[in-house]
């Protein structure tokens, strides 16, 4: 369980200026993507892969985050490339572009290949909890779930989101 009120407050405080400056809506997913990139930089082993041939751990010097997108034809997982070098506007723009391509059924294999970490947000469907599936050869996935009030208060504020990170033991 993580406290979501800081992200809600940040978005509420900056969404109008962000829209005016970038002509993009400031969503919550960009915060999850950026936070994941920071975490992966702090813990590079989670962003690593085991080479099938040598059985050695290969550390990547880039972060490519796969983001699950629901479409009328099913779930697809396009990749946001080089997230470590992106700001919030870059991330929002890329999410928007990939989402549009997904809804139009115009994603290429290259758009969905090579992610180093995945974020799945079942919360948009009201999911309260779930266990997302790790996409091999990735070593971890972040599963986000619905926001709802619980009898937990910190600083007089209530509002949490269930999130889980699964890691492969290889």
UniProtKB/TrEMBL annotation:
GO MF terms held by the record: dihydrolipoyllysine-residue succinyltransferase activity
Gene Ontology annotations of biological process type: tricarboxylic acid cycle
Pathway(s) of this molecule: Amino-acid degradation; L-lysine degradation via saccharopine pathway; glutaryl-CoA from L-lysine: step 6/6
GO cellular component, one term: mitochondrial matrix
Enzyme class name: transferase
Catalytic activity from the UniProt record: N(6)-[(R)-dihydrolipoyl]-L-lysyl-[protein] + succinyl-CoA = N(6)-[(R)-S(8)-succinyldihydrolipoyl]-L-lysyl-[protein] + CoA
Limits of the 2-oxoacid dehydrogenase acyltransferase catalytic domain: 5-158
Principal subcellular localization: mitochondrion
Cofactor(s) annotated in UniProt: (R)-lipoate
Top-level taxonomic group: Eukaryota
UniProt-listed InterPro entries: 2-oxoacid_dehydrogenase, 2-oxoacid_DH_actylTfrase, CAT-like_dom_sf
Record has Lyase as a keyword: no
Swiss-Prot/TrEMBL keywords: Acyltransferase, Lipoyl, Transferase, Tricarboxylic acid cycle
Places the protein is found: Mitochondrion matrix
Key word Acyltransferase present: yes
EC number: 2.3.1.61
Function field: Dihydrolipoamide succinyltransferase (E2) component of the 2-oxoglutarate dehydrogenase complex. The 2-oxoglutarate dehydrogenase complex catalyzes the overall conversion of 2-oxoglutarate to succinyl-CoA and CO(2). The 2-oxoglutarate dehydrogenase complex is mainly active in the mitochondrion. A fraction of the 2-oxoglutarate dehydrogenase complex also localizes in the nucleus and is required for lysine succinylation of histones: associates with KAT2A on chromatin and provides succinyl-CoA to histone succinyltransferase KAT2A.
Protein family: Belongs to the 2-oxoacid dehydrogenase family.
Complex and partners: The 2-oxoglutarate dehydrogenase complex is composed of OGDH (2-oxoglutarate dehydrogenase; E1), DLST (dihydrolipoamide succinyltransferase; E2), DLD (dihydrolipoamide dehydrogenase; E3) and the assembly factor KGD4. It contains multiple copies of the three enzymatic components (E1, E2 and E3). In the nucleus, the 2-oxoglutarate dehydrogenase complex associates with KAT2A. Interacts with ABHD11; this interaction maintains the functional lipoylation of the 2-oxoglutarate dehydrogenase complex.
Protein name as annotated: Dihydrolipoyllysine-residue succinyltransferase component of 2-oxoglutarate dehydrogenase complex, mitochondrial
Species annotation: Ursus americanus (American black bear)
Lineage: Eukaryota, Metazoa, Chordata, Craniata, Vertebrata
């Amino acid at each position: 369980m993580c406290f979501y009120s800081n992200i809600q407050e940040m978005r509420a405080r900056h969404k109008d200026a962000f829209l005016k400056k970038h002509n993009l809506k400031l969503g919550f997913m960009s915060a999850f993507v950026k936070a994941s990139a920071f975490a992966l930089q702090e813990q590079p082993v989670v962003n690593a892969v085991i080479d099938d041939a040598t059985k050695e751990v290969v550390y990547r010097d880039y972060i490519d985050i796969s983001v699950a997108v629901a479409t009328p034809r099913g779930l697809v997982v396009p990749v946001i490339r080089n997230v470590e070098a992106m700001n919030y506007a870059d991330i929002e723009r890329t999410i928007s572009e990939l989402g549009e391509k997904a809804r139009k059924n115009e994603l290429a294999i290259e758009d969905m290949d090579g992610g180093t970490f995945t974020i799945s947000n079942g919360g948009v469907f009201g999911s309260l909890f779930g266990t997302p599936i790790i996409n091999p050869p990735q070593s971890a996935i972040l599963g986000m779930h619905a926001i709802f009030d619980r009898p937990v208060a910190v600083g007089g504020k209530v509002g949490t989101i269930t999130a889980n990170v699964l890691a492969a033991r290889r």
